[in-house]
Write a structure and sequence with these properties.
75% of the residues lie in helices and 0% in strands. With 150 residues, the protein is mostly helical. The longest helix is centred in the middle third of the chain and has 33 residues. Pfam families: Hemerythrin (PF01814).
Length: 150
């Protein structure tokens, strides 16, 4: 699909300057776009089409997000990020929403699927573009110190 059919375009403004985390964030944007495109493509195919798309995308997103959160939280903890607990709480809230969507999947409607895409879109914009930027200084300083120690 072309970029016009993407819901969210990866932009330099999302980059934190932490290559491993930036790559994971870029993949999350791809997952959001894949989910959106799958649902839109399947909208007129009846319930089964978008339900399959949602199911596959939810599984992939949930699996990937666990890896991303684990990596990010490990880095924040090692760096001594002062706001680690509230940041981790945001992660837990995301996991809870995703789990709720998976748990209630049998009751899902097209609107539910689209609402989840909107949730993912909003979360990516708010979390990556704002909340994650708050830890950049701490993590980069930690990385510089580690590099200086050899």
């Amino acid at each position: 699909m072309n970029q016009q059919s993407n819901l969210l375009i990866w932009d330099k403004k999302f980059e934190l300057g932490i290559p491993a985390i930036d790559a994971q964030h870029e993949h999350l944007v791809e997952l959001c776009n894949n989910l959106y495109q799958s649902i839109i493509r399947q909208k007129d195919a009846g319930a089964e089409g978008w339900q399959v798309a949602l199911s596959e995308a939810l599984r992939e997103t949930a699996g990937y997000i666990v890896i991303h959160f684990r990596d990010e939280e490990k880095l924040l903890k090692a760096a001594g990020y002062a706001n680690f607990a509230p940041h981790r709480q945001r992660h837990q809230e995301f996991i809870a929403k995703t789990t709720e969507t998976i748990t209630n999947f049998d009751k899902a409607t097209f609107q539910t699927a689209f609402d989840f895409v909107k949730f993912l879109y909003d979360w990516i914009l708010r979390h990556i573009a704002y909340e994650d930027k708050l830890y950049v200084k701490t993590v980069l300083e930690f990385s510089r110190q580690r590099a200086a120690q050899g």
